[in-house]
Design a protein that fits this description.
Elements: H1 2-21, E1 30-36, E2 39-40, E3 45-53, E4 57-60, E5 66-71, E6 78-79, E7 84-88, H2 91-126, H3 132-165, E8 167-169, E9 174-176, E10 186-187, E11 195-198, E12 203-210, H4 214-221, E13 232-235, E14 247-251, E15 261-268, E16 280-286, E17 293-297, E18 302-304, E19 307-314, E20 317-318, E21 324-325, E22 328-330, E23 336-338, E24 340-353, E25 356-361, E26 368-372, E27 381-385, E28 390-391, H5 399-408
Helix pairs in contact: 2-3
């Protein structure tokens, strides 16, 4: 028993002294690359999802009922104003027109006869050869004949209009779509749509802006600012740049109270008919802000629950009680100087330009921003800068040259 107790005390003493003399683990220092946030002039485009719209569009409907007896166009082609498109069976309307013309001739004959009678009875009445009542009746008969002639002439106009409506013509230059009726189909007034025609040159492009931007776009519309040639351009669905520039045509009359958005309409030339109504595209508005802005590489930004952060390198670590500690000592990497810490800061993102992003708030000029090694950091991590500090946007991809490419390349969607 005594032997067992002795072994137990010896073992505990060994463990105690082993723990007491074990050196503490070295603190983890994360090597990082940083840049210095500095303001610089940038040139970029604000982008808005948009849709192409025809400036004029009309659904062709028949004005008179009947069977379709003729189709005189090729679907999907460009047509001219006044071009013959459809013909509705006009035999009935032609017959009505011919009958109305004949009725006019009969009415004209009756009017001539009534006028002759009235003239004759007027002469006899002047010589007291007939009763006054006979003349009165003759005058009334002449007026009735004249009114019948007018009614017959109006009937001719109605019959001619219906006969004209039996042939459908293009109301303006534009592009015609697929025919909704075929030869032999019955066309009904008010319900049947024959086809749709829309203008194609120029073409409208509609997009929505926030009401806070309304004043800026009104200034652009009224030319209160110096406008570059490439103020409004569009990116097609395949990310190619449309070769023509546009201008503001209309700003909608009211803001949507539910969304706070208002519609802007641009107009673009479309001589080659490359734009079709209903296409999705992206409007690019050349940025007019000439003041320097903070730009950093996009890889420095960390997203957490819909919010965006960056790590800023500081030589001061804020403790939980609000006190700051700044120590001058040698770190584990053997570098003489203050310890450096990674402090997480919430930022407000601006426009993304290539591999870089504009920062609207959250950091200040001169802050050291971590661009490499971000994944290994957390709030308060000790860091070691492993390469020379570089100014904002010049580490890796050149932000400044990216801005220039963004503003200058118009033949493709690269860096836009």
């Amino acid at each position: 028993m005594y032997k067992t107790i002795s072994i137990f005390f010896i073992t505990c003493s060994f463990v105690f002294f082993s723990c007491k003399h074990k050196p503490p683990p070295p603190s983890t220092v994360v090597p990082v690359n940083v840049i210095t946030a500095v303001p610089q002039l940038v040139f970029y485009f604000d982008k808005y999802p948009s849709t192409t719209e025809a400036l004029s569009e009309v659904a062709l409907r028949p004005e008179v009922p009947g069977y379709i007896t003729g189709i005189f166009f090729t679907e999907g082609t460009h047509i001219k104003k006044g071009q013959k498109l459809y013909e509705i069976d006009k035999r009935l309307y032609q017959a009505n027109y011919d009958a109305a013309v004949a009725n006019v001739k009969v009415a004209d004959g009756n009017e001539v006869q009534a006028k002759q009678d009235a003239d004759r009875y007027t002469y006899l009445n002047n010589h007291n050869a007939i009763a006054k009542q006979v003349l009165d009746h003759a005058v009334i008969a002449l007026e009735n004949a004249q009114n019948q002639t007018k009614a017959a002439q109006e009937a001719v106009k109605t019959a001619k209009t219906n006969l004209t409506y039996a042939t459908v013509y293009a109301p303006f230059d534009g592009t015609i779509g697929f025919s909704q009726v075929k030869l032999g189909d019955m066309a009904s007034v008010g319900t049947t749509v024959l086809n749709t025609i829309s203008t194609i040159d120029p073409m409208a492009v509609d997009f929505l802006i926030n009401e806070k931007q309304l004043t800026h776009f009104e200034d652009l519309q009224n030319h209160k600012k110096k406008l570059p040639d490439s103020l409004f351009t569009i990116l097609m669905a395949d990310n190619t740049l449309y070769p023509y520039t546009g201008k503001i045509s209309v700003i909608d009359r009211a803001v949507d109270p539910q969304t706070g958005a208002i519609r802007i309409r641009l107009v673009f030339p479309n001589p080659k008919y490359g734009l079709k109504a209903g296409m999705s595209c992206v409007v690019r508005v050349h940025n007019q802000d000439t003041s320097p802005q903070l730009v950093i590489p996009g890889k420095a930004v960390v997203e957490q629950m819909g919010e965006y952060f960056v790590f800023v390198v500081k030589d001061t670590l804020i403790s939980h009680n609000g006190d700051s500690a700044k120590k001058q000592e040698t770190d584990t990497a053997g570098q003489k100087g203050p310890k450096l810490y990674a402090i997480q800061k919430k930022i407000q993102l601006g426009q993304t330009i290539g591999g870089n992003v504009i920062i609207k708030g959250g950091i200040e000029e001169g802050d050291l921003i971590v661009v490499d090694g971000v994944q290994s950091l957390h709030e308060g991590s000790q860091v070691a800068v492993s390469q020379k500090q570089q100014s904002g946007g010049r580490g890796g991809d050149s932000t400044h040259s990216s801005m220039q490419r963004s503003a200058g390349k118009k033949d493709s969607g690269e860096n836009n």
